[in-house]
């Protein structure tokens, strides 16, 4: 017990207030970073990716590449020397985004006059004159290649579709449609767990679905060598991008 | 490797080569070497001095340069002799030039005859007993011997090979990077030797190369990026066909 110099009892010190760290409120919204900026794992010199990113930023300053995801509906106008107007426009759903750096590609699919058509465009090709996002949405999977084996109604997109208006602050809607498939055989065995597809309504009998689970590899998600944590790389690239685009 | 687009919209694949700490090490005159031209020893990419004996450090000490990982010789004419110790930069080459690139190919180890020489092997079924990727016959009856140089299994790769006539599309003077058309032998980040092309079609291609080399302390101020005329610059708007 402390004895004060005055002889009076010591002054009451209230306990320090508890510091509350509020983790439940959402952090600042994670802005969209196009997947081709993230360098893949490998032995290449990071200088190569830095130089490629400078070229990509140069292109983005002149030509607007909008934010889009797999499952959004895009319209692309390219320069075509063989067309009468010297330019051709194609509308379709984006089924896949591949490649990193300047060679990044995206595949658009549409069904025109009962014929399925897929065109693979390069994001940074100088022949592309305009990319418009008619409908921005996400789907349950990152790769919609199964639309090739689905009923054609799920891949048809109206060529004269008007862009769907969207507010900037809204979250990107996730289209949870379960696609119905044509009868088997399919181009790939989509029911197998390696594709991990959530957007198909499998109408296969139960024993077939159970048999497909035989090829599951449940140890893969615990494999530490396969982990590629891109959060820090993404932050750096985001900072770099925002600095360069403001210039 | 990267894509590069021309002004007409065509795509070409391009390999990036970095010129890392290249210095001229020694001048060997024509009489000394016994060849037809004088030689210049050039070393590239600094390496640790502790992994080699002192006797190997003499050349580097004379030139006043840290120990290099690789030392190569270039045959030069007498008017292109450079003083030992001068650094060499990527600006030695100019866009539009044609170049030969030499490197050690990726080593594949001991390989069989099908992969190494492209033999067809034997069918997979129809009665073949334990013979699917074997060489088959190695000589004829009358020869009574196997000729020298017969293609047989052995160590494949890890030998020097050259890709000829590669166009230089772009040079980055700030980071010393040469953008060379097409692919180049060797794995990623391997050491590579770049020379002016010896092909007769590209004999007169060099319009005004920096001769004998590009000197960094000279008066010339080069922009950060040197492009070939046909390259599509990303600062231009998209290509349109008139």
TrEMBL record, chain A:
Q: Where is the composition biased (Basic and acidic residues)?
A: 20-29
Coarse class of the primary localization is mitochondrion
Any one Gene Ontology MF annotation carried by this entry is:
structural constituent of ribosome
Q: Which domain of life is it from?
A: Eukaryota
Query: What keyword terms does UniProt attach to this protein?
Result: Mitochondrion, Ribonucleoprotein, Ribosomal protein, Transit peptide
Looking at the UniProt entry, the stretches that span the membrane are none
Q: Does the keyword Ribonucleoprotein apply?
A: yes
Cellular compartments annotated: Mitochondrion
Task: Provide GO CC annotations from the record.
Answer: mitochondrial large ribosomal subunit
Q: Which InterPro entries match?
A: Ribosomal_bL19 (IPR001857), Ribosomal_bL19_sf (IPR038657), Translation_prot_SH3-like_sf (IPR008991)
Region feature (Disordered)? 1-29
Q: Which Pfam families match?
A: Ribosomal_L19
A GO BP term, please?
translation
Matching SUPFAM superfamilies, A to Z? Translation proteins SH3-like domain
The cross-references to PANTHER family, in alphabetical order and at most eight, read: LARGE RIBOSOMAL SUBUNIT PROTEIN BL19M, RIBOSOMAL PROTEIN L19
Q: Which family does it belong to?
A: Belongs to the bacterial ribosomal protein bL19 family.
What is the protein's given name?
Large ribosomal subunit protein bL19m
What's the gene?
Answer: Mrpl19
TrEMBL record, chain B:
| Keyword tags | Mitochondrion, Ribonucleoprotein, Ribosomal protein, Transit peptide
The domain of life for this entry's organism is Eukaryota
The record, for PROSITE patterns, names: RIBOSOMAL_L3
Q: Which InterPro entries match?
A: Ribosomal_uL3, Ribosomal_uL3_bac/org-type, Ribosomal_uL3_CS, Transl_B-barrel_sf
Please give an example of a GO cellular component term from this record: mitochondrial large ribosomal subunit
Question: One Pfam annotation, family name?
Answer: Ribosomal_L3
- Name the Gene Ontology molecular function terms of this record: structural constituent of ribosome
Localization per record? Mitochondrion
Question: GO biological process: any one?
Answer: translation
Classification via PANTHER family? 50S RIBOSOMAL PROTEIN L3, LARGE RIBOSOMAL SUBUNIT PROTEIN UL3M
Family in the record: Belongs to the universal ribosomal protein uL3 family.
Report the protein name in the record: Large ribosomal subunit protein uL3m
Species of provenance: Cardinalis cardinalis (Northern cardinal)
**Lineage of the species this protein comes from:** Eukaryota, Metazoa, Chordata, Craniata, Vertebrata
């Amino acid at each position: 017990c402390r004895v004060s110099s005055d002889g009076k009892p010591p002054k009451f010190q209230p306990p320090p207030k508890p510091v509350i760290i509020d983790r439940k409120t959402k952090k600042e919204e994670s802005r969209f970073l196009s997947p081709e900026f993230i360098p893949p794992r490998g032995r290449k010199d990071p200088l190569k990716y830095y130089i490629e990113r400078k070229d990509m930023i140069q292109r983005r300053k002149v030509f607007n590449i909008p934010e889009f995801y797999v499952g959004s509906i895009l319209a692309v106008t390219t320069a075509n020397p063989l067309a009468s107007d010297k330019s051709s426009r194609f509308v379709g759903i984006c089924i896949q985004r591949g490649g990193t750096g300047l060679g990044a590609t995206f595949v658009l699919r549409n069904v025109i006059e009962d014929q399925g058509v897929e065109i693979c465009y390069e994001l940074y090709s100088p022949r592309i004159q305009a990319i418009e996002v008619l409908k921005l949405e996400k789907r349950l999977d990152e790769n919609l290649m199964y639309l090739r084996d689905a009923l054609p109604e799920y891949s048809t997109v109206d060529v004269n579709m008007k862009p769907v208006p969207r507010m900037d602050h809204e979250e990107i809607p996730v289209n949870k449609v379960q696609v119905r498939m044509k009868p088997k055989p399919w181009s790939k065995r989509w029911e197998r767990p390696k594709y991990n597809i959530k957007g198909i309504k499998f109408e296969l009998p139960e024993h077939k679905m159970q048999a497909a689970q035989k090829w599951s590899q449940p140890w893969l998600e615990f494999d530490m060598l396969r982990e590629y944590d891109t959060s820090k790389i993404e932050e750096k690239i985001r900072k770099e991008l925002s600095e360069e685009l403001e210039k | 490797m990267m894509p590069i687009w021309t002004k007409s919209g065509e795509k070409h694949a391009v390999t990036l080569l970095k010129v890392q700490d290249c210095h001229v090490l020694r001048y060997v005159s024509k009489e000394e070497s016994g060849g037809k031209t004088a030689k210049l020893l050039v070393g590239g990419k600094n390496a640790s001095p502790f992994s080699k004996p002192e006797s190997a450090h003499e050349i580097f000490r004379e030139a006043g340069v840290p120990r290099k990982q690789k030392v190569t010789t270039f045959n030069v004419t007498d008017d292109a002799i450079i003083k030992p110790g001068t650094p060499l930069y990527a600006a030695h080459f100019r866009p539009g030039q044609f170049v030969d690139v030499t490197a050690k190919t990726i080593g594949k180890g001991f390989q069989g005859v099908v992969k190494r020489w492209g033999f067809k092997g034997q069918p997979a079924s129809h009665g073949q007993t334990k013979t699917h990727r074997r060489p088959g016959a190695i000589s004829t009856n009358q020869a009574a011997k196997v000729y020298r140089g017969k293609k047989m299994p052995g160590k494949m790769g890890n030998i020097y090979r050259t890709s000829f006539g590669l166009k230089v599309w772009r040079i980055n003077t700030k980071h010393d990077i040469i953008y060379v058309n097409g692919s180049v032998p060797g794995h990623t980040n391997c050491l590579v030797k770049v020379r002016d092309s010896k092909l007769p079609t590209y004999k007169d291609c060099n319009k005004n190369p920096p001769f004998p080399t590009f000197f960094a302390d000279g008066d010339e101020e080069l922009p950060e990026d040197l492009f070939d005329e046909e390259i599509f610059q990303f600062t231009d708007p998209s290509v349109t066909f008139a």
